[in-house]
Specification:
single chain, mainly alpha, two-stranded antiparallel sheet, 67% helix, binds 3-hydroxybutanoyl-coenzyme A
Length: 313
C-alpha cells in the first residue's frame, strides 16, 4: 500500500524545482480542484467571449475586416476547446463544466458582460481585452500543470495576433473622420476600467492567489499583472491619440510604474454576481447554442457506439 508521504513529497519537489505536474502524476485533491476551476472558467471565458465580437461579423465594414474578425472569433472557439481538453486530463467532464456554466455554478470573465455598441469596440477589445489576456496568460505558459501551460503557449501566440489586429483597426479609425475618432474614444471610455477588472480583485481580497502561487499555478498576483497592463497600455494610448478615462494616471518615477485611480470593486463584484449589463443574455445564448447542438452530440455518440460494436465484430 503506497503511503501518501512520498507522493506528497514528490509533488512538492516537482513544484519546488519548477517542473511540470502531468495528468498521471499524484496530486493533492485541492490542486486538482483548483486547476479544474481555473481551466474550466478560462475555457468558459473563451467561448462566451465569442459573443460580443461575433455580433459584428455580419456588420464589419469591409471583406478584409470581416475575414480578420472571423479568424479571431474562430480562434477563441479553439482556445475554449484546448482548455476544455486540458480540464478533461484532470478528470473533468466537458458536459458537466458546461452545465455548471449555464447554471451559474462556474464563472467566466466579467469583461464579456459588457455590450459592444459600435464597431470601434471590436478594435478596443482586441487592443485592451486581448492585451490584458496576454499580460495575464504569458506567465501561465510557466504554470505548474503541464497540459495547461502547453495550451497557453499556442493561445498566447494567437492572442498576440488578436491584440495587433485590434490596435491596427483603431489606428486606421484614428486616421479617419472626427466621428470615427469619437467612436474610438467612446469605446476606450467604456472598456478601460472593465479591462483592469479582468485581473481579478485586489490581492488582499483574492481568495485563491496565495495557494495558487504556492502551487506554481499563478506566477504573479492580480495587482502585479494589472500594473504590468497599465504600464504597457498608457504609451500605446498616447501613440493612438486617445485619452484613458482616469485623471489619476501619472508616471511615478520613484515606483517606476504608472499610478492609477481606484477600480470600482463593487462593479466587479456585481458583474461577477450576475448583475452586469449582459450576463443574462450571454448565458442564455450559451445555453441555447448548447441545446441546439444536442442532436450533433447524440449523432456522434450513436455513431461511435455503432463503430465500436462493428469493431468488436
Ligand atoms: N471575472 C469573473 N470572475 C472573476 C474575475 C473576473 N474578472 N476575477 C476574479 N474572479 C473570480 C475568481 O474566479 C474567484 O472565484 P472562484 O473562486 O469561484 O473561481 C474569485 O473571483 C476571487 O478571485 P481570485 O483572484 O481569488 O481568483 P483567481 O486566483 O482564480 O484569479 C483570474 C482570477 C486572474 C481570472 C485567474 O483565475 C486566471 O488567471 N485565470 C486564467 C486566465 C483567465 O481565465 N482569463 C479570463 C480572461 S478571458 C480571455 O483571456 C479570453 C481572451 O480571448 C480575451
Amino acid at each position: 500500500m503506497t503511503t501518501i508521504e512520498p507522493l506528497q513529497q514528490h509533488f512538492e519537489d516537482t513544484i519546488a524545482h519548477e517542473h511540470r505536474i502531468e495528468p498521471r502524476d499524484w496530486m493533492p485533491e485541492g490542486y486538482r480542484k483548483t486547476m479544474i476551476r481555473q481551466i474550466g472558467q478560462h475555457a468558459h471565458s473563451e467561448i462566451i467571449g465569442m459573443q460580443p465580437e461575433g455580433n459584428w461579423i455580419t456588420r464589419a465594414p469591409s471583406l478584409r475586416r470581416k475575414a480578420i474578425l472571423l479568424a479571431k472569433v474562430q480562434d477563441e472557439a479553439g482556445h475554449g476547446m484546448y482548455l476544455y481538453s486540458a480540464a478533461e486530463t484532470l478528470g473533468a467532464d466537458r458536459a458537466d463544466l458546461t452545465d455548471k456554466l449555464v447554471q451559474g455554478r462556474q464563472k467566466y470573465s466579467s469583461i464579456f458582460n459588457y455590450p459592444t455598441l459600435s464597431y470601434a469596440d471590436v478594435g478596443v477589445i482586441g487592443w485592451l481585452v486581448d492585451g490584458a489576456a496576454i499580460c495575464n496568460q504569458v506567465p501561465l505558459c510557466r504554470s505548474s500543470y503541464g497540459p495547461y501551460a502547453r495550451a497557453m503557449i499556442r493561445i498566447c501566440k494567437e492572442e498576440s495576433f488578436h491584440q495587433r489586429q485590434g490596435y491596427e483597426l483603431l489606428m486606421t479609425m484614428m486616421r479617419g473622420t472626427d466621428a470615427q475618432r469619437q467612436m474610438v474614444q467612446s469605446a476606450v471610455d467604456r472598456f478601460w476600467w472593465p479591462s483592469l477588472m479582468m485581473f481579478g480583485p485586489p490581492d488582499e481580497a483574492s481568495t485563491n492567489t496565495e495557494q495558487s502561487m504556492a502551487w506554481g499555478i499563478k506566477r504573479h498576483t492580480n495587482d502585479e499583472l494589472r500594473q504590468r497592463f497599465v504600464d504597457m497600455s498608457v504609451p500605446q494610448a498616447d501613440k493612438l491619440g486617445v485619452t484613458l478615462p482616469d485623471t489619476a494616471l501619472k508616471w511615478n518615477a520613484e515606483r517606476g510604474h504608472y499610478d492609477f485611480g481606484a477600480v470600482d470593486w463593487d462593479e466587479l463584484a456585481a458583474v461577477i454576481g450576475g448583475n452586469g449589463p449582459c450576463n443574462i443574455q450571454r448565458v442564455a445564448h450559451r445555453k441555447a447554442a448548447h441545446d441546439d447542438g444536442a442532436w450533433v452530440r447524440e449523432a456522434a455518440t450513436a455513431h461511435a457506439a455503432k463503430a465500436a460494436k462493428a469493431a468488436q465484430g
